[in-house]
Specification:
Number of strands: 0
Order of helices and strands: HHHHHHHHHH
Distance between the termini: 36 Å
Radius of gyration: 20 Å
Structural class: mainly alpha
Shape: globular
Helix content: over 70%
Mean pLDDT: 90
């Protein structure tokens, strides 16, 4: 059950952050109640502790510490790392989660493209300049902000490209075409999000993956 809750939490973050964190909490409770010995790579633990410590230190010396408290609450999300390492018992559970994340990413991309089309047509009907009016409120998909949406699509695109480059032999012919189609849709939504920083990040990651 913990593995399923963890997988659903990973998938739900593309549709609803609140739902994802509820599932994350349920998965964490299930893991703790199992009383199983927990593993966590030491090479990850020190950087995470350093990040948390530095964040707390900056908060302590801030002129308005109350404004930083929401960032402390977000530490909760890092428990997902421990859950993924300890909850999944086999490759099938991992692969199903990956497929769910990719499917959720494509759904989010299609929804965002629908928003883009709707915004474009509305601005055309009103006779308003597209770029000047669109960039003040870009598409957000299921998220509340275009930066969150763009960042999620970027990670989904990396995952699709990595599978296509490094695991293509595990896919059927139909699976390869589906992978290309998914990449195309996610890429279109990324372009439609008009977030230049994420475009640059995507180009850097694509260059790295191709070089590897």
């Amino acid at each position: 059950m913990t593995a399923w809750l963890t997988g659903l939490s990973c998938i739900a973050v593309l549709l609803s952050i609140a739902l994802s964190q509820i599932l994350l909490g349920a998965a964490l409770a299930g893991l703790l109640l199992s009383r199983r010995k927990l593993d966590f790579p030491a090479r990850w633990l020190l950087p995470l502790l350093a990040f948390a410590g530095w964040t707390l230190l900056s908060l302590a010396f801030s002129s308005e510490p109350a404004s930083g408290l929401p960032q402390i609450r977000k530490f909760f999300v890092f428990f997902l790392l421990a859950l993924v390492i300890n909850a999944f018992q086999n490759h099938r559970q991992l692969w199903l989660t990956v497929q769910g994340v990719l499917s959720g990413g494509v759904v989010a991309a299609l929804y965002g493209l629908g928003q883009f089309t709707q915004d474009y047509l509305a601005l055309r009907r009103q006779g308003m300049e597209f770029y000047e009016n669109y960039v003040v409120h870009q598409i957000t998909g299921f998220m509340g902000h275009w930066m969150t949406y763009g960042g999620q699509l970027m990670l989904v695109f990396f995952l699709l490209l990595a599978i296509r480059l490094f695991a293509a032999e595990t896919l059927s012919r139909a699976g390869r075409w589906l992978c290309w189609l998914s990449m195309f849709l996610v890429c279109l939504a990324l372009l439609g999000a008009f977030t230049r920083g994420i475009w640059l990040g995507t180009l850097a990651a694509v260059a790295y993956l191709i070089a590897r």
